[in-house]
Recover the amino acids of this structure.
């Protein structure tokens, strides 16, 4: 084309470029094709489609470029390069931050080719950028089966081995990313209901996902905030059955069963916490001191729950063991400390009386006196227990 010549109503310029547009699989590994752009060696120039095929035009600003692409689609709706043009529109809108328009272009691409991995992937990226959890769920769910189908497809006969290898790697990456997007969005959104929907979708998609254990704690917090305890228990117990442990989930389950007066289950879940945290590495993003504090707090609360539940069953010796383990880790929380001291007093009184061991009785008195000194729901009964112990054993 000579400089200044027009074709299809659009004025083009001529420049020297070594690259030429080539056909390639546009996202379906099975055969539909669209044009891809080959970098031009002349700055400011790129290849774009024209009525008779790709033509060399000067690059303009993004808005004008999109307008030219959209006009081309209007003028030549049946052109074989429409898929390539829509891809440029989708990605240009993404770069501009117009995520709704990007998704509209992606939807048109998927109408042309329902197996277009790239189109589904970039719509997922647009949904992420919008920070819209429901759109992330939608496009994650849409992209996952497309990627899976692409990975399982047979290599087209006319496709180079290296191109096929790259296409497969891309499809596999998209499959993994559909899970990562759910995980990442769940960590970012503040709405409890959205957090739960995202995590439940991730579990539904792949219960063995590498990202699921990392977001279970977030799910537990959201479920408790929303008072959605049934959903918390359902997800939490399935996770524990798969050995996907998380201290926040285990503590929530223990608390749930304590409140339901099911002490055996409460103790079962509580006692998993210290064992799990003994080998859990520090999560990424935690300072050493912060992780140590969270770990000790969780272990202390677990011992406390187990001890209180065991005391409620009159299992005095194991209750004494758990509550003694809890004491040094819950010292900053007066109410937990008061409860631990109260039940330690009661446990040691029962054990000392049964064995006629005065040293254990003295421990019971000491624990009860300490519990009585902390204002709160345990103080009154602890004070009464002090009087009973002194009276029975002639202690002044």
């Amino acid at each position: 084309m000579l400089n200044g010549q027009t074709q299809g109503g659009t004025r083009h310029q001529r420049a020297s470029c070594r690259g030429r547009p080539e056909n390639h699989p546009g996202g379906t590994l099975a055969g539909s094709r669209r044009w891809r752009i080959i970098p031009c060696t002349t700055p400011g120039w790129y290849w774009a489609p024209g009525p008779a095929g790709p033509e060399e035009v000067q690059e303009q600003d993004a808005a004008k470029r999109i307008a030219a692409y959209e006009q081309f689609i209007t003028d030549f709706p049946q052109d074989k390069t429409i898929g390539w043009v829509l891809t440029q529109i989708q990605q240009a809108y993404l770069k501009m931050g117009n995520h709704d328009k990007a998704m509209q272009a992606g939807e048109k691409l998927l109408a042309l080719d329902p197996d277009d991995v790239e189109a589904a992937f970039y719509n997922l990226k647009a949904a992420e950028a919008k920070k819209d959890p429901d759109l992330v769920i939608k496009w994650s769910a849409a992209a996952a089966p497309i990627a899976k189908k692409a990975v399982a497809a047979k290599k087209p006969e006319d496709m180079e081995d290296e191109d096929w290898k790259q296409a497969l790697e891309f499809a596999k990456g998209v499959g993994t990313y559909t899970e990562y997007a759910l995980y990442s969005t769940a960590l970012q959104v503040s709405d409890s209901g959205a957090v739960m929907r995202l995590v439940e979708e991730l579990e539904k998609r792949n219960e063995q996902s590498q990202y699921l254990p990392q977001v279970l704690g977030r799910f537990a917090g959201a479920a408790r905030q929303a008072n959605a305890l049934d959903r918390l228990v359902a997800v939490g117990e399935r996770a524990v059955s798969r050995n996907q442990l998380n201290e926040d989930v285990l503590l929530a389950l223990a608390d749930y069963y304590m409140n339901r007066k099911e002490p055996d289950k409460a103790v079962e879940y509580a006692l998993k916490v210290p064992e799990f945290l003994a080998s859990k590495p520090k999560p990424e993003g935690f300072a050493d001191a912060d992780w140590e504090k969270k770990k000790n707090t969780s272990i202390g609360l677990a011992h406390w729950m187990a001890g209180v539940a065991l005391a409620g069953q009159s299992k005095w010796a194991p209750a004494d063991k758990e509550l003694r383990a809890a004491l040094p880790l819950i010292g900053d929380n007066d109410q937990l400390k008061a409860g631990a001291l109260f039940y330690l007093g009661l446990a040691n009184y029962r054990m000392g009386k049964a064995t006629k061991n005065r040293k254990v009785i003295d421990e019971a008195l000491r624990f009860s006196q300490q519990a009585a000194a902390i204002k709160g729901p345990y103080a009154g009964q602890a004070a009464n227990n002090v009087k009973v112990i002194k009276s029975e054993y002639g202690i002044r």
